[in-house]
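Let us begin with a simple case.
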Amino acid sequence: MELVLYRHGETTLSGGEKRFLGTTECCLSPRGREQIRVAAMEYRGRPERIYCSPSIRCRESAQIFADVLSGYQSRPKIVYRECLREIHMGEWDGKTFSEVRNLYPKAYEERGRDLVHFRVPGGETFLEVQKRAVAEMEQIRREEKGEILIMTHHGVIRTLRCHYLGISLSKLMEWKLGYGQCCTLRV
């Protein structure tokens, strides 16, 4: 069985200085909408459903993807799953990296030393993200027979990739996926 994991398109907050963008809501930028449209046009699968994070950037991406696919197949149903949300960054959510380094210097260093277990106050760890995302994938795998198309976030995809490829979660930041790009995993 294949998991086809797409990262949402670029957002209105993607430009400029890098920021901690977990549960902060934002829309796709015009470039992000185009990234998803192109990705959907290049996609050759025929999913009945697109499983999707309920965040605005993923919902917009899934809608565009489904609209494009409906041009040559029946329109896939979009199914929202809370466990596909991005990591909750708590007090840091929406802040730039430089803001966090200035406001929380010790915590920022601690995060660098233990990315897997570090928890921002009010947030969650990457280990927790991985556990909820893997549990969700296993549930979806029980519900589906063929290819599984997921529209989600970079952090979620990274944790799933580590799990299904047997890579230490401590190495999740060593791999990157661009906006509107996909990662296919055989599970």
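The second case is a distinct protein. As before, the sequence precedes its structure tokens.
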Amino acid sequence: MFEQLRLILSDRVASPLLREAVLLLVIAVIAVAAYFIVRAVMLWVEKKVEKSETKLDDIIFNKSLCTAIARLVPALVVNHCLPQLIDSNTSLHQWIKTLTALYVLVAFIYLSITLVKNLYDLMEVKPSTKKYAVKGIFQMLRLIIICIGVIVGLSIVLGREPATIVTAIGASAAVLMLVFKDTILGLVASVQLSANRMLKKGDWIVCDSHGINGTVTDVSLTTVKVLNWDNSVSTIPPYTLISDSFRNYQAMRDAGGRRVERSILIDLNTVRFLDNAELDRLRDRGRLDGIDTDGAREMVNLHLLRLYLDNYIRHDSRVNTSMLYMVRQMQPTAQGLPLQLYFFTHATAWREYERVQSDIFDHVYAIVNEFDLRIFQSPAGTDIIKSNF
């Protein structure tokens, strides 16, 4: 068909310039028609995809991908029709061929980048893959596609093989390494963070050396963005989290238990044996419920306090008793004997966690005196006045 069109124009149009203009117009009409046909088909397919029950295909086959496919078709049509309609020996053919090849390249790069972006959006939606910090990897894939496109584009314009362009660029590799140092380090760090499941968006991390304490809002190729609890935003390179240490509290949230590890200081001068009358008083007040004291002639008040507190946290519904819990003595100090409560709360959110912890220790502080024990604290001015000094 194209050959017949050329023969008809050769017989009826004497001017070569006018003949080439007509042929170019024919190619343009075919390309535009192909664009609208393919776009209409893509829009029809997109509507069918939107009506499907699953939403995952909507992310992959979205409007951006349909547009990218539709833009690629005219370039392929021109690239196919050009050699058949225009004499390859003319300078116009060479210019149009070069421009068409560049347009095909740009359209293909746009299509590839759009597909990579849609794959990342798909991973962000699926719960099984959302936990991986892969944004930096997908950013690097897009950067690699663009770099390959630039190399191929230069080879088309300069008329050289891509290998020659790569060799020329390799000669300046030291300069490129310096320019793209952060990008390369960010890629390596992103791969390590993702492969080892060290970090993902939504995690609560603490990095004391950089003053970071908050929730990760974004993990990109060159930056990890953290929204701190004071509503300030901190940014840090991903490779810093690899080379330096940080704490990730997400495992604590997922486990459903947040640790409480606090001590009260007992005045050692108040530790003593309790007589039967004092035991009966504690028993009448219900402080010895669940504690076996039958047959015991002498009981140490500190020992009973430890048993009481252990029983108290065991029966508190806010304490996660499936995890380790205990009440233990620590090494005595000049300020008294530390009595530590170690347990995990069901609540992991900061506000609720602090409320539960405070409620439990409110009770601890109030119950100590009932066992004839005293909490140690440094003397205040009022204490000195009451001592009549």
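DSSP finds 16 helices and ten strands in the chain. The first helix runs from residue 2 to 12.
Keep these points in mind for the review questions at the end of the chapter.
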